[in-house]
Design goal:
Blueprint lengths: L18 E4 L2 E5 L6 E3 L1 H20 L1 H26 L11 H17 E13 L4 E11 L2 E10 L9 H18 L5 E8 L5 E6 L4 H12 L4
Parallel strand pairs: 6-7
Antiparallel strand pairs: 1-2, 2-3, 4-5, 5-6, 7-8
Helix pairs in contact: 1-2, 2-3
Length: 225
């Protein structure tokens, strides 16, 4: 059974942001194209680089490349199916492989039972305060509360301390959304589809992640890029 989600358009002052991807990462142009801000994912990836490099060495670069390629392909497909479903597209599962549909069905109860009015999907946001930009998965009511909602996929279950970068990412989106719209969002929701396991749900408060976010941005700005 397909739900019918209500959508309300929020005025950001622009329709979208132009993104430029280079080897060193992605940047977004502000609407007037006077400034180019690094993406929040680029900033957070610098923080995780040492751990990822150590993992690649441990299992071998060829095997690591294979795993990362599979994870990226699956993650992109699951995200796209979720996006279509929340946009009320009929028969949206028909074009996806069974494993992708299976991951989606694991998450479907979170959407049907807990997501209310949707204010934006794949929305490009930027912050002049942080001089950072990015694209949020979803801004919507979750359990009746205005929230930043991020959809993730994982090959295995994760401990909370392993996904703190997700909370920082969502914290940025919440701050940037308020900066652009004057609408406060304090609830951060992370929904993770896990291969052959129960989905994981984390609900955090934005204000608990402002300082960690600030420190990560500060550290990135001191790097020799």
């Amino acid at each position: 059974m397909m739900m019918k989600f209500e959508h309300k358009k929020v005025d950001l002052g622009y329709e979208d942001l132009v993104a430029i991807t280079k080897p060193e990462g992605r940047k977004y142009a502000t609407p007037d194209h006077n400034k180019y801000y690094p993406s929040i994912t680029t900033i957070l990836s610098h923080k995780s680089k040492p751990g990822i490099e150590a993992w690649k060495k441990r299992i071998g670069y060829e095997e690591a490349a294979k795993i990362l390629r599979k994870a990226y392909t699956r993650g992109t497909a699951v995200h796209l199916l979720i996006e279509k479903y929340l946009q009320n597209e009929k028969n949206c599962t028909s074009e996806f492989m069974p494993d992708i549909v299976g991951s989606f069905m694991d998450l479907k109860p979170f959407f049907d039972n807990r997501i209310g009015t949707i204010y934006g999907q794949e929305m490009a946001l930027y912050s002049d305060h942080f001089e950072v930009a990015g694209r949020v998965d979803c801004v919507a009511e979750f359990d009746g509360k205005m929230s930043i909602i991020d959809f993730k996929t994982s090959l295995k279950p994760k401990k909370k301390e392993w996904v703190e970068s997700y909370f920082m990412q969502e914290c940025f989106y919440a701050i940037a959304f308020e900066e652009r719209t004057k609408i406060p969002v304090t609830q951060l929701v992370t929904i993770i589809a896990v291969d052959n396991s129960t989905p994981e749900l984390y609900i955090e408060h934005r204000d608990d992640w402002v300082e960690p976010l600030r420190e990560v941005i500060k550290e990135y700005n001191t790097l020799d890029k």
